[in-house]
Structure formats: structure tokens, C-alpha cells
Design brief:
Elements: H1 7-18, H2 22-27, H3 29-50, E1 89-94, E2 106-111, E3 116-122, H4 127-139, H5 141-149, H6 173-176, E4 181-187, H7 189-192, H8 197-218
Antiparallel strand pairs: 1-2, 2-3, 3-4
């Protein structure tokens, strides 16, 4: 399979960072569609064909709005930075049952100049979801041990002490302190624009699948 992303993908994002205003974006919208949006939507569609290799419960949605691809527009309502556009592009592949009322883990892709990352997990879950994950670690320590032995390097924020209601001497207390449960790998722009990047991405999703499976089951969802 030929490469989804070309150097023009990253060139547009670099230019956008230098000219982050609506007038410039409108004048260059055709570039955005051709070099950024269309390749990402095609990548999303092709990932959707491959996700059943890992789990049939996780899906891709290639719709331009409300699908797997994040909006390029920034939400500036509560930010001191009023730049209207993100200078990176991302996609998330969520559980079939995902909705505003049903938060789920997801596989993730983030592409930007010198910041290409792929992986999966859950980022800053709300307290009810976070508590379910922590309780599942306590209820299934053998299952969590499998995740930890898989080599996944967990990332994200942690508490300074055990959360209320959990044993500070628990063997996995360092993980019970976590506020995020995600992991993955970094890629270079050269890798992201290579013919084999889709395979590399799917391999990364497969590597993080033990974590995704544990989180999915922790939330009472089908893997």
C-alpha cells in the first residue's frame, strides 16, 4: 500500500503554525483538504478495515464531522491562546458503545511536526470511570500483572499517594495512583510518510491491546 501521508502533510502544518489565522487558512483550505484532511480520512478508513484483527468492538468512522478525526479548530473559549487552529491532526478509534454518556478507552493517532505518537488507553477519565478501573485492578491482580508484563510503558499523571479507599500497601499501588492509563510509541515524520506506516500503526495498536482489553473489561464492555 502506498503512503497515506506525504511531506506536504507536515509542510501544511508547519505553515499553519507560522500563519495561524482564519484568513490564511481560508486562502489555503484547498491545501488543507488535499494534503491533510483527505489523507487522514483515508487512513481512518483503512485502519477500520484492520481493527477487527485486534478487536471487533473498536471501530473507525471516516466522517468529516463527528467521526474519528479530531476537528482542526481549537476551542478557545477558556484559553488565553486564541489561535483558531490546531497545528497537529489526530484521530481516535473508540468502542462501538462510546457516547457522551459511555466513556471508553480508544486507540489513538497524533501527527504533527516532530510530534508523531500512536497508542491507546484512556486519558483523564472522570472519577466514576477511574474508580472502576482501579477497582478492577484490585479485583483482577493477575489480569493487571499480564498488562504490566507486556512491556507497555504507561504514561500520564499520577497522585502523590494512594486514592481514598484503596490500600496504600497494595502491590500495584503505583498504578492505583494513576489518573491516566495509556501507552504507545513515537514515530518520526519519515516513518509516518512511509509506505508501511499503516502496518506500523496496527502493530502499535496490537502492542497496546493488553491494556486496552483490561480497560474495556474494567468498564463492563465487550472486547
Amino acid at each position: 500500500m502506498s503512503a497515506h501521508f506525504t511531506p506536504g502533510f507536515f509542510k501544511f502544518l508547519r505553515d499553519l503554525k507560522a500563519h495561524n489565522d482564519r484568513a490564511w487558512f481560508q486562502a489555503n483550505r484547498d491545501r488543507y483538504v488535499a494534503d491533510v484532511e483527505a489523507p487522514m480520512l483515508q487512513f481512518i478508513a483503512d485502519v477500520g478495515e484492520r481493527l477487527p484483527e485486534i478487536s471487533s468492538a473498536y471501530v473507525a468512522n471516516r466522517r468529516r464531522m463527528g467521526g474519528s478525526m479530531y476537528r482542526i479548530h481549537r476551542d478557545t473559549r477558556f484559553s488565553a491562546d486564541k489561535s483558531p487552529y490546531k497545528t497537529w491532526v489526530a484521530a481516535t478509534f473508540k468502542h462501538r458503545s462510546a457516547s457522551k454518556d459511555v466513556p471508553t478507552p480508544g486507540f489513538y493517532l497524533h501527527l504533527g511536526p516532530k510530534e508523531c505518537w500512536a497508542g491507546g488507553g484512556i486519558y483523564h477519565p472522570e472519577m466514576p470511570t477511574l474508580t472502576k478501573i482501579r477497582q478492577h485492578i484490585v479485583a483482577d491482580p493477575k489480569g493487571w500483572a499480564v498488562v504490566r508484563k507486556s512491556g507497555i510503558e504507561l504514561e500520564g499523571d499520577t497522585l502523590t499517594r494512594a486514592p481514598a479507599g484503596f490500600d496504600p500497601k497494595h502491590p500495584f499501588v503505583e498504578d492505583l495512583r494513576r489518573k491516566d492509563f495509556y501507552g504507545g510509541a513515537e514515530f518520526t515524520e519519515r516513518e509516518a510518510t512511509s509506505d508501511g506506516f499503516l502496518d506500523k500503526y496496527i502493530a502499535c495498536c496490537r502492542d497496546v491491546a493488553p491494556l486496552m482489553q483490561f480497560l474495556t473489561k474494567a468498564l463492563g464492555l465487550r472486547w
